[in-house]
Every structure is written in C-alpha cells, then in structure tokens.
C-alpha cells in the first residue's frame, strides 16, 4: 500500500519549529528530511551551518557528527549482520566474543542482548582516560569492572556499546570502521564515515570547549570516542541528512520485504525494558506509539525516527552542541518530530 502523502500542516509545523529553535539560539541551523518508502520526500532547512561560515545554509549534503546515532547506524546493523552469519549469540556473555581473558570479569558476563537494551547493570559513567597507561587491553579493563547494579533495569550505558564495537572487530577479524564502511557503501551511504573528516563549509562544527581555542570541527565530539581514535561502538560516525534518509529507506524496505535485516529490525522492536511510561527500550532503539515507532537521538543534536508499518521516516540533523548547554533547547523540535511520526503511524494502521 502506498504511503499516505505528507500534509501541508505537518510540513509547516516542522518547518516553523525548526526555525523557532534556530532563532532561539538552540542551534546555528539544521535540516529535517521526511520521507517514505515509495519515494516521497521533503527537505526542510533553517539557519546557517555555523557563524564562522557566515550565512551559508546547511543542506541535505552537510556532514554532521552523529554522536550516539552511531549505535543504530553502525553497531546495531553490524550486530544483526554478525547474528545472521552465526558469529554471535545474543544471549551469550560478551566476554565469549572478545579476545581470551583470565580472571574475574563481572562486566564481561553481560550478554549482547543486555548491552544492546541498556539493561546490563554495567557502570553508566565511562571515563576511558582513567585507563591511560594500563598494560591490559581495553576489553579486559572494561570486563573486569564491577557491576553497578543487577541486570534488568534500564540505564543508558555507553560502555556497553564500546564493548560491542570491540566484539564486532574481534569476531569479524576486521576493524569496526572497515566493517561499517563496507555496510554503508553497500547501502549507498556515500558520505558516511568514521571521522575525522576534513573541516570545511560542508562540515558542521560542534563545540568550542575552551574560549579562544579552536572549535571542534571534523573531529569527534565525544571524548571517549576521541580516545579510541574516533572509532567506537557508541559514537564517532559522521553523516549527512541525505545518507540518513537512504539508511532509513533501506531499513523500511527490509522490514516490508522480510529479509534477514528486516527480521532483525522486527526483533529489535520488541520491548526489553521500560524507560518511562509510554516509552520502552528495544534492542538499541527507543520504542513509542505501542512499539510502532522506533527512534534514537545523538548528543550533538541529531535524531532518526522510523514508523515501519507506515513506511515513513524522519531525520533531524543539527549541531546544537555548538552552543554548549543550549543543546537541550532543541527539545521542542524532537517532541514535535515524535508526535508527528507517531500520528503518521496511527494513520497507516487505521487504513
């Protein structure tokens, strides 16, 4: 069944809210892409890439630091690929898919499923700089850490995805960035890479952490990912609104046609833990609208929303950390995006 067309009211509200958060100092600018599996697409733009570039407006080709969207654009699909190749077992301890280690490894007993669903009980605070000068491998150091809580409760934990990235490299015998690059090229995501990327008018800079110092521009914003050379399971990927739309379309097509990736997406939309009333965590994805909408945010100001049964997606790319703490002021845009795609999902179910 063809997707329902976007209404002018939907597009106007998204455009107005994007313009309002830009005018309110939440972000220098941003891009929204709304699309469907049957080729409908709307690209909305507001503001500028950065004040350093004058009034140059962002486009669907502007490169953004995705931050935690790395989890669902790199790590999650690669885990699904490894699962299909029988390289991993979701319910096996992560230490089983890492280089051999000896001794007690409390955090290493967490399963891949628990790490994906943020229910592992691992310590939430991750400071890889505390491991500077250690003689043991990073996987050993992470696995030796005591648990902060009994597994089962939802708590957003980056170190779990760092372990997943290390595990993917080990079981595939290839680096995480090479694995991801092969996947993205196959999909047609020609501008998506692990950083760094060359700074320029086509790249949205992020934060200036020290007054008078150079702004972070083309290098990963996340400090732990930076310590890993910019390549990690939780952060480090740069992409464009257009590539994220390509990725979303690929996922929705797979969901409709029922191939192995589509089955992985369906399995990932099963709730594993309650985040708050109305929101659950699946495998990587946050679930809303009774599981009919899946989405994820990135700390830098990015978001990706899917409504698989409606064949629709919504992409938000901003560099809201440009203003530091003002990143939280893009919340009205994210709230409207979730409300809009949830309504699209309900419309499709009513058809």
TrEMBL record:
Keywords assigned by UniProt, alphabetized: Hydrolase
Pfam families assigned to the protein according to its UniProt record, in alphabetical order: Beta-lactamase
Gene3D superfamilies associated with the record: DD-peptidase/beta-lactamase superfamily
Signal peptide (residue range): none
Source domain of life: Bacteria
InterPro entries: Beta-lactam-related, Beta-lactam/transpept-like, Diverse_Enzym_Activities
GO MF entries: hydrolase activity
Residues covered by the Beta-lactamase-related domain: 17-337
Name listed for the protein in its UniProt record: CubicO group peptidase, beta-lactamase class C family
Organism expressing this protein natively: Streptosporangium canum
């Amino acid at each position: 069944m063809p997707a329902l067309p976007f209404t002018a009211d939907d597009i106007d509200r998204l455009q107005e809210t994007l313009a309002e958060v830009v005018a309110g100092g939440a972000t220098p600018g941003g891009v929204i892409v709304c699309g469907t599996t049957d080729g409908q697409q709307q690209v909305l733009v507001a503001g500028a890439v950065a004040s350093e570039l004058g009034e140059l407006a962002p486009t669907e080709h502007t490169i953004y630091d995705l931050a935690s969207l790395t989890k669902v654009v790199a790590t999650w699909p690669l885990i699904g690929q490894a699962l299909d190749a029988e390289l991993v077992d979701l319910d096996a301890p992560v230490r089983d898919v890492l280089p051999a280690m000896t001794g007690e490894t409390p955090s290493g007993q967490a399963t891949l499923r628990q790490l994906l669903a943020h229910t592992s009980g691992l310590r939430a605070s991750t400071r890889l700089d505390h491991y500077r000068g250690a003689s043991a491998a990073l996987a050993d150091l992470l696995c030796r850490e005591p648990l902060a809580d009994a597994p089962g409760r939802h708590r957003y934990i980056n170190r779990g995805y760092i372990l997943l990235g290390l595990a993917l490299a080990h079981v595939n015998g290839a680096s995480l960035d090479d694995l991801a690059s092969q996947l993205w090229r196959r999909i047609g995501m020609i501008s998506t890479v692990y950083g760094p990327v060359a700074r320029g008018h086509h790249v949205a800079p992020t934060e200036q952490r020290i007054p008078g110092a150079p702004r972070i521009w083309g290098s990963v914003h996340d400090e732990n990912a930076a310590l890993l050379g910019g390549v990690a399971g939780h952060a480090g990927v740069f992409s464009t609104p257009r590539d994220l739309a390509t990725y979303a379309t690929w996922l929705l097509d797979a969901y409709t046609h029922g191939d192995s990736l589509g089955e992985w997406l369906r399995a990932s939309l099963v709730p594993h833990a309650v985040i708050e009333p109305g929101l659950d965590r699946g495998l990587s994805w946050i679930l809303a609208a009774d599981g009919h909408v899946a989405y994820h945010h990135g700390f830098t100001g990015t978001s990706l929303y899917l409504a698989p049964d409606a064949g629709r997606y919504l992409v938000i790319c901003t560099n809201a950390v440009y203003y530091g703490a003002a990143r939280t002021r893009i919340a009205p845009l994210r709230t409207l995006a979730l409300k809009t795609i949830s309504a699209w999902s309900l419309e499709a179910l009513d058809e």
